[in-house]
Design the sequence.
């Protein structure tokens, strides 16, 4: 094992890691905004609008990201009017093209995730909200959005981890992030395995951090699903009428128990 | 030249080339799925093993192959594999660099990625088997192999079908990355056609449409297969 080479490679890859993180942050943020509009259109109930949203999701989920990226970066430059338009300074830059195509693609995937979350909101809760006279916006803010977001979080964390991996494709439109730099080092040194190990460690650490953060977020937004503190072995509690068993993942009906944890303010 | 001639099948048309690319994409994805099924079931076995070492190996495999960009894995297999083959070549007296066949490298690369997803699918399906059935098989004296062949494998295959449909779609899209090795699959052919005609937009759209056709058709195939398999679930004892 040549540690000097490994350290040197790691150094070069770590130097471009901020670029990967920047790509990732930008694309999931813009993608999230896109997905909210697409989801809104998808569940709008207006036939043409929801069909357009469905078509968007179909196209961006059904074709490889690489071809979408090439279409945006190389394809658009075919047209003179694009090259003369105000958007050209933005589209000309490979970094921007990569961010836009990553965002468009994840927008389609995220829209499906939000839709799944929306479908999981119990109809009874929406009815109850309506029955006590909540306005549409209040209903969305208090009942629908918190429920849907909580349901969608696990799938959402999978999606953003997939996006971390997808940023690697930006290297094919000449953005020298971690994978692109790794590929260049491989072709310069022919030491594939060492370079691969270094790059893999960077991605694994990044993904590990993302997953941990998302787990923490999931934990924070679902206090009512947590098992209540154990009273097993605590004398006197059972007699006081407090249930003994810990119920991991207990249904919300039990949430009003006397030993329930304080609710996280939303 | 009109668009129709360029995309058509005539002398100056690129339609045939694109279709050949689509066929290559299908072929390489099917090979990858087979590689993935073999490696994936072994990894699932390791993950379900009672031996801690095997379990750690299985978990490490799925973590690495699902956590590292697909492109990086394809580079590893293609460049790493070629170096390895060249090294064996020099032992046998050959000179210089020997490239790994792009088809094989691509199928193995996408296959190993697909294996990590397939392993999770198989593991989930195995855990979905009613434990009583395995106990019953043991009680009537079936050997390990018989249990696997008669009780476990048929059910795992049935339960896995929806999950495998998802893995297939993933692999189909991952196969576009094999274009970096120069394999003449759909992505690569679109690039070639786009580069030689300078009609980038047209050919990437055409390639994208062909991918959509492939994903839609395979969705249909899996849908039909799932409905067929679902017939065997009805009235299954012990499954309500």
Sequence:
């Amino acid at each position: 094992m040549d540690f000097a080479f490994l350290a040197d490679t790691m150094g070069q890859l770590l130097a471009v890691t901020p670029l990967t993180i920047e790509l990732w942050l930008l694309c999931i943020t813009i993608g999230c905004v896109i997905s909210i509009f697409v989801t809104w259109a998808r569940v709008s109930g207006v036939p043409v609008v929801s069909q357009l949203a469905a078509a968007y999701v179909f196209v961006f989920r059904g074709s490889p990201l690489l071809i979408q990226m090439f279409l945006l970066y190389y394809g658009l430059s075919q047209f003179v009017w694009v090259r003369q338009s105000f958007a050209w300074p933005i589209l000309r830059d490979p970094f921007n093209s990569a961010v836009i195509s990553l965002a468009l693609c994840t927008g389609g995937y995220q829209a499906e995730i939000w839709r799944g979350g929306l479908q999981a909101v119990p109809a009874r809760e929406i009815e109850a909200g309506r029955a006590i006279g909540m306005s549409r916006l209040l209903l969305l803010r208090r009942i629908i959005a918190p429920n849907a977001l909580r349901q969608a979080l696990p799938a959402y964390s999978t999606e953003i981890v997939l996006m971390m991996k997808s940023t690697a494709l930006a290297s094919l439109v000449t953005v020298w992030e971690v994978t692109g730099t790794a590929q260049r080092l491989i072709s310069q040194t022919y030491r594939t395995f060492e370079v691969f190990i270094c790059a893999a460690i960077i991605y694994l650490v990044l993904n590990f951090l993302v997953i941990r953060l998302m787990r923490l977020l999931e934990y924070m937004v679902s206090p009512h699903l947590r098992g209540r503190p154990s009273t097993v072995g605590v004398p006197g509690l059972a007699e006081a009428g407090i249930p003994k068993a810990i119920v991991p993942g207990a249904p919300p009906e039990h949430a009003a128990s006397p030993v329930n944890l304080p609710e996280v303010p939303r | 030249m009109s668009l129709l001639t360029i995309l058509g099948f005539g002398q100056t048309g690129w339609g045939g080339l694109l279709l050949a690319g689509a066929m290559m994409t299908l072929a390489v994805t099917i090979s990858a799925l087979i590689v993935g099924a073999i490696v994936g079931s072994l990894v699932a076995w390791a993950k379900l093993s009672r031996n801690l070492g095997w379990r750690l190996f299985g978990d490490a495999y799925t973590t690495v192959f699902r956590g590292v960009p697909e492109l990086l894995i394809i580079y590893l297999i293609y460049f790493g594999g070629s170096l390895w083959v060249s090294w064996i070549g020099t032992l046998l007296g050959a000179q210089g660099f020997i490239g790994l066949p792009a088809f094989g490298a691509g199928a193995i690369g996408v296959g190993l990625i697909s294996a990590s997803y397939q392993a999770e699918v198989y593991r989930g399906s195995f855990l979905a088997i009613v434990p009583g059935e395995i106990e019953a098989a043991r009680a009537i004296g079936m050997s390990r192999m018989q249990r696997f062949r008669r009780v476990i494998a048929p059910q795992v295959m049935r339960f896995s079908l929806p999950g495998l449909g998802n893995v297939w779609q993933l692999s189909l899209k991952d196969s576009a990355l094999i274009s970096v090795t120069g394999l003449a699959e759909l992505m690569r052919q679109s690039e070639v056609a786009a580069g030689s005609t300078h009609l980038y937009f047209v050919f990437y759209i055409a390639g994208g449409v062909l991918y959509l056709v492939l994903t839609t058709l395979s969705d249909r195939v899996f849908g039909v297969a799932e409905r067929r398999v679902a017939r065997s679930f009805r009235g299954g004892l012990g499954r309500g």
